[in-house]
Automatic annotation (TrEMBL):
Signal peptide: 1-29
Alphabetized InterPro entries for the sequence: VWF_A (IPR002035), vWFA_dom_sf (IPR036465)
CDD domains per record: vWFA
Protein's name in the database: von Willebrand factor type A domain-containing protein
Entries under Pfam families matching the protein: VWA (PF00092)
Keywords: Signal
Residue ranges occupied by any VWFA domain in the UniProt entry: 43-258
Length: 531
């Protein structure tokens, strides 16, 4: 279940001899989440219509802002970020999302916020949401400064929109394009796990039949709640307090391995061979295939759900097969975006199916799946280390099973990319273990640059024999190359060659360790026929 903490088991190489590679479990403390609070970490952005007709609502908000902000601080256990944006036919950013900024937001609302001007209805609510949801810069927009505050992956995320007007973009005209723009903002928020909870202030009922469905779409799409006040704006502050108390939680799980129970962090070792991720030729179920270069395949991801129905977005990424991959919430780090599917996962779970078009060569990839939901944020904030993010959060999973096929005595190739996902120089070990060892030769070619790194790190190895200028034959049962120094962010691709001497199906794991911790690996399924 979510927030269940157990000590993780992280494999480490502690003794290496010519005959064996031994593993043990070091005492590694599991990271602890923020102190218990009703909601946990909260990121809240207020998007307020401050045109002249909003005087009553703004006056009501002024009287209630202290209670609203105190609610956020208390419900988050002090782990919060607030943002404040106002709009007319333009957008004004007053406060970016920033930690501990309750006083600044409260002060602005209490002492400065005022209803004034506005060149008649409609207003730029859709573009104000665009600014906040998508962290837009000011350049090229009627916007004073960038909205540069970061939405955190481990926070429940709210946008509270307060307005009495139809969305009109920046041209002060309401048209079909503005309805579409508003709907797109709801879709954007859904994809980022942000709830939009609108408060409609019907100062005039002339356009209520148009405004109400738009407000409801914001809420329905993103999992928020739509509220309406009186025509005078009375009750605006109370409505906002009620919206922000909606901290219901769900818990969708993508398993790291068959025995994964959803505990966070995962205490059970390997986090790069998820049984819930596979590639199929079509949307029809299959046993799983190697991606077909140049074709369109479909990534199938099973989403397990023992909680209430959960609405969110499943996002899938790829990177060359290997370990030590970096993650970045803004740029995706070493991972290339494949696609996404927004859906509601019923109790019991379902399978998301995401097309993967024009698969590039050579067709050997790691796949990463991330479930992004307003009601199921990451328990632990994501950092640069993909393996650690996956271990910590049960709505991230990593799949790295590669199938290589060939004939007896004919070499078949694959690849392994190792990297440094930390923010410091490290020494890394490459450890091969054969679950069903290849009956024949396994050779790894480091290439000139990585070979020199290995030599600079001391040139240590176990169960290997040099067979070329930069190549080594590996003991298919257990072998290792040790102490390879890597700088932060570096990645090197090695070439593996399997030459089986008997037909059969073999399974070999090649894993990258950094200071005894598993930083990712590949399971190579080698299938050989007689020919």
């Amino acid at each position: 279940m979510r927030h269940l903490l157990r000590r993780g088991t992280l494999f480490a190489v502690v003794a290496l001899t010519a005959s064996a590679v031994q593993f043990t479990s070091p005492a590694v403390a599991a990271p602890a989440p923020a102190a218990a609070a009703p909601c946990g970490p909260l990121d809240v952005a207020f998007v307020l219509d401050d045109t002249g007709s909003m005087g009553g609502a703004i006056a009501n908000l002024k009287t209630g802002i202290n209670a609203i902000v105190n609610d956020v601080v208390t419900a988050s256990g002090g782990d919060y970020r607030l943002g404040l944006v106002t709009f007319k036919d333009n957008v004004t950013v007053h406060n970016n999302l920033a930690p501990g900024n309750a006083a600044a937001v409260t002060s602005y609302v209490t002492n400065t916020l005022a209803a004034s001007a506005g060149s008649a209805e409609p207003e730029a609510s859709d573009e104000a949401l665009n600014t906040v949801v998508n962290n837009l810069p000011a350049a090229g927009r009627p916007q004073n400064v960038d909205f540069s505050g970061a939405w955190r992956s481990n926070a429940m995320k709210f946008v509270v929109l307060v307005t009495d007007a139809r969305p009109g973009g920046f041209d002060n005209v309401h048209a079909a394009v503005d309805v579409a723009n508003a709907a797109q903002r709801a879709d954007d928020a859904l994809g980022k796990g942000i709830k939009i909870s609108p408060v409609y202030v019907p100062t005039s009922t002339t356009y209520s039949s148009v405004i109400t469905p738009i407000m409801q779409d914001y809420a329905t799409t993103t999992g928020g709640v739509s509220t309406q006040t009186t025509s005078t704006g009375a009750g605006t502050a109370d409505a906002i307090r009620k919206l922000l108390s909606d901290c219901r939680q769900t818990d969708v799980v993508i398993r790291d391995q068959v025995t994964d129970t959803g505990a966070e962090p995962n205490p059970n070792g390997t986090v790069w061979n998820s049984p819930d991720i596979k590639v199929c030729p079509t949307a029809a179920d299959c046993a799983g295939i190697q991606p077909v270069v140049g074709a369109t395949n479909v990534v199938h991801v099973r989403l397990n759900n023992a909680s209430a129905p959960s609405t969110g977005t499943l996002k899938v990424y790829r990177t060359p097969a290997g370990g030590g991959t970096t993650w970045n919430n803004a740029t995706n780090g070493d991972w290339v975006y494949i696609g996404e599917q927004s859906l509601t996962v019923p109790t019991g779970g379902t399978v998301a199916k995401i097309p993967w078009a024009n698969i590039p060569g050579p067709g050997h990839f790691c796949l990463l799946a991330r479930w992004v939901s307003a009601t199921d944020p990451m328990t632990f904030a994501e950092g640069p280390n993909t393996a650690q993010n996956t271990r910590n959060n049960n709505n991230i999973a990593w799949k790295n099973l590669q199938t290589v096929r060939g004939k007896v005595f004919e070499p078949v190739r694959s690849w392994f990319t190792l990297g440094n996902a930390t923010e410091r120089e490290v020494k890394t070990d490459l450890v091969l273990t054969g679950e069903r060892p290849v009956a024949g030769a396994v050779v790894i070619d480091l290439g000139p640059r990585l070979f020199e790194r290995w030599r600079a790190g001391g040139g240590q190895a176990v169960g290997v024999k040099q067979v070329g200028e930069t190549a080594f034959q590996l003991d298919p049962k257990r072998s290792a190359l040790l102490g390879v120094p890597l700088l932060p962010g570096e990645r090197f691709t090695t070439e593996l060659t399997f030459t089986p001497e008997a037909p059969g199906e073999y399974l070999t794991n090649l894993v990258q360790f950094v200071e005894g911790e598993d930083h990712g690996g590949v399971a190579y399924q080698v299938i050989t026929d007689r020919g």
